[in-house]
UniProtKB/TrEMBL annotation:
SMART domains: AAA. Keywords: ATP-binding, Nucleotide-binding, Transport. The keyword Nucleotide-binding applies. One of its GO terms (biological process) is daunorubicin transport. It comes from Oscillatoriales cyanobacterium SpSt-418. Belongs to the ABC transporter superfamily. Drug exporter-1 (DrugE1) (TC 3.A.1.105) family. InterPro entries: AAA+_ATPase (IPR003593), ABC_transporter-like_ATP-bd (IPR003439), DrrA (IPR005894), DrrA1/2-like_C (IPR025302), P-loop_NTPase (IPR027417). This is ATP-binding cassette domain-containing protein. GO terms for molecular function: ATP binding; ATP hydrolysis activity. Residues 5-235 form the ABC transporter domain. It holds the Pfam family DrrA1-3_C.
Length: 339
């Protein structure tokens, strides 16, 4: 059977910005597939190319074996897309918006009515269906977006940041809903920069960074690949780089320590990969003490998806987000200064 989604060597630039440099991924039918990456990594651009809303510069895209480039209409029928930022008409009611969506997909009238009712029920929106969508809370709006994306019974539901800005309760309602539609056979492709969301929800994940896929697999495969437990420690709140280097040379000789990464974005803190279930923590503390290096904070944990990202890029997802935000702010500032 053809995969639900096949993307091969996708490329897309906006002027000089290479939004997607080389993305290949394969989503199997019936799975929840997560695309994880920091701001500006190219997630939305990838999804927009898949959903035929943006024309790629190069690469192949197939939806259940149908080329989205040669046969965009048919590919689009197989996809439901819920955008990152949806401009919904505030004057229309939830039901009216779904009716509009049904008309856009040319759904037969009787089928549309039935389908709208069942979507409203599935997303527990019956009580709000005839209220103006402008009065909806963020969680309700998102549920309405999901209903709209699913209305024409797509094989694949594509969701761009489905839970961003939602409170914990609404977020877990969306998660439950996605599991439910997966159980009914719908394939789900979603982006997120919430590590825990992807970890909990996704059967498989591709980590995307600066327009490229840097790792792909099940969350546990990816975590296993980065090896043992992690120790994070600080020499002091902001250690000089020479001190961090000295700590690294002391620590990398310890038998339990597999790898030491200096995280310059976090005040030269040290991220260690150590053999699991070893007495690494006390060995590390003793070695630093013997070298006359104080420890400001130290913690040991099982690897997370952030460690996968760190191992591949040398920075954590959070640092990448902060860097992307500051580049954006700098650009904004420069623009303002030019005025
Ligand atoms: N229409 C556009 N015109 C110019 N540049 C764009 C356009 N869309 C995206 N970009 C740029 O392409 C890069 C990738 O953007 P994209 O929106 O795909 O990232 P993302 O991973 O979805 O980020 P986020 O997590 O912030 O949603 C960014 O540098 C962005 O500024
Ligand atoms: Mg995006």
């Amino acid at each position: 059977m053809a995969p639900a989604v096949l993307i091969e060597h996708l490329k897309k630039s906006y002027g000089t910005v290479e939004a997607v440099k080389d993305v290949s991924l394969q989503v199997e039918s019936g799975e929840i597939f997560g695309l994880l990456g920091p701001n500006g990594a190219g997630k939305t651009t990838t999804l927009r190319c898949l959903c035929t809303l943006t024309e790629p510069d190069a690469g192949a895209i197939e939806v259940s074996g149908v080329s989205a480039i040669d046969n965009p209409r048919l590919a689009r029928q197989k996809l439901g897309y819920v955008a990152q930022e949806v401009a919904i008409d505030k004057v229309l009611t939830g039901r009216e918006l779904l009716q509009l969506q049904a008309a856009l997909y040319h759904l037969p009238r009787a089928f549309a009515k039935e389908r709208i009712d069942s979507m409203l029920k599935l997303l527990a929106l019956q009580d709000y269906a005839d209220k103006k969508s402008g009065t909806y809370s963020g969680g309700l709006k998102k549920r309405l977006d999901l209903a709209a994306g699913l209305l024409h019974q797509p094989d694949v539901l594509v969701l761009d940041e489905p839970t961003v800005g939602l409170d914990i309760e609404s977020r877990s309602a969306v998660w439950d809903f996605l599991r439910q539609i997966k159980a009914q056979g719908t394939t789900v492709l979603l982006t997120s920069h919430y590590l825990e969301e992807i970890d909990i929800l996704a059967d498989r994940v591709a980590i995307i960074d600066r327009g490229k896929v840097i790792a792909c697999g099940t969350p546990s495969e990816l975590k296993d690949k980065v090896g043992g437990d992690r120790i994070t420690l600080r020499i002091r709140e902001f250690a000089p780089v020479e001190e961090a280097e000295k700590a690294r040379s002391v620590l990398q000789d310890l038998p339990a320590v597999q790898e030491v990464i200096i995280n310059s974005a976090q005040g030269n803190s040290l991220n260690l990969v150590v053999s699991p279930q070893s007495n690494a923590l006390s060995a590390v503390q003793q070695a630093l003490q013997a070298a006359g290096l104080p420890t400001f904070g130290i913690a040991q944990a099982r690897p997370s998806l952030d460690d996968v990202y760190l191992a591949a890029t040398g920075r954590t997802l959070l640092d990448a987000e902060i860097a992307a935000a500051s580049t954006r702010d700098e650009k904004k500032e420069r623009k303002q200064n030019m005025r």
